[in-house]
Sequence to fold (122 residues):
Amino acid sequence: MARGTIIPTLQLLLLAVCCATTVVHGKEWTVGDSKGWTFGVSGWERAKRIQSGDVLVFKYNPSMHNVVQVGEGDYNSCKVSGPSRTHTSGNDHIKLAPGGKAFFICSFPGHCQQGMKIAVTA
Fold:
């Protein structure tokens, strides 16, 4: 290879490596680990290094539970009164947006009070 083509080739290679390393796929976290989204899952998130772009996977029986993304006030009161988004598939994949906290509860009567809620900082 001629000397004049080595430098442009190296620059192109470096550019390709840089572009490849900026494509980052978030990690998937199964909420509640092997137990899934169930009673007593509150606090599961505390020991995790969850980041923006990561995906929370909620696995549960949809005839018995749901996942509702709520604001902090509704999370604390275990009541859905403000804007929310309800998931009901039993295998919900929710990608975390950058910045701030995300709050999730089960809105079936009494479930949030029994620990079916998590607060994640991304």
Notes: Residues 17-23 have pLDDT under 50 and may be disordered.
